[in-house]
Fold this protein.
Amino acid sequence: MTVPNPAAAVSSIADRFAQVRGRIAEAAKAAGRDPASVGLTAVSKTQGPEALQAALDAGQRVFGENRVQEAQGHWAARRAALPDLELRLIGPLQTNKALEAVELFDVIETLDRERLAAALAAAMTRAGRRPSVLVQVNTGAEPQKAGVLPDDADALIAVARDRYGLKVEGLMCIPPVDEDPAPHFALLAAIAARNGLGVLSMGMSGDYLAAIAAGATHVRVGSALFGERNKAPAPS
Ligand SMILES: *Cc1c(COP(=O)(O)O)cnc(C)c1O
């Protein structure tokens, strides 16, 4: 394999954004949905400054990051010049990082336990900022994976809303890598529907078309936009 020169890599990022956006629109139409009802979250974890700039140049403003500190490095300085930037935390959050997360992110997609709901509520009071929240559901009940178990999701949603006053807007999931994702997307959609939640963050580079067919409102796409990551931490 040859190492691409940075200019070529940058132009191919623009091409990939156009291609992924086109596919999202087609999948939405095929599902009888308005293409504008599916948001593209560009997963910018592990990317360097040229790639971030190429995404911004392609008009992208919604980004997903899975580590608080890396996200600060990517976005804290750029943020002032980008009033329409939307940052979404898609990786697991420790309670001792809740304040930093609340200060930086617009949406926290990975609420999965009551202790974290409490920490987020306290952090929001301190920060004077109220990002919206998604509950991450471990639809495959995988022991190593973050997320509330499907049977415990309704209770956590209720506690987060009612006891802690969090703005719970929807659900997020990462299906098991070795399974058909469709039943996992359907399960997430069913849990959202019975709880009156409208936002479904589901679908990654390998399965975002299936996720859109199942009702995704936000797809989280990394490698299909930026190319393969060198050092991808396993999503959990
Ligand atoms: C890394 C990551 C993605 C993007 O994965 P790709 O397969 O590169 O599109 C999406 N969601 C989460 C939670 C991730 O950690």
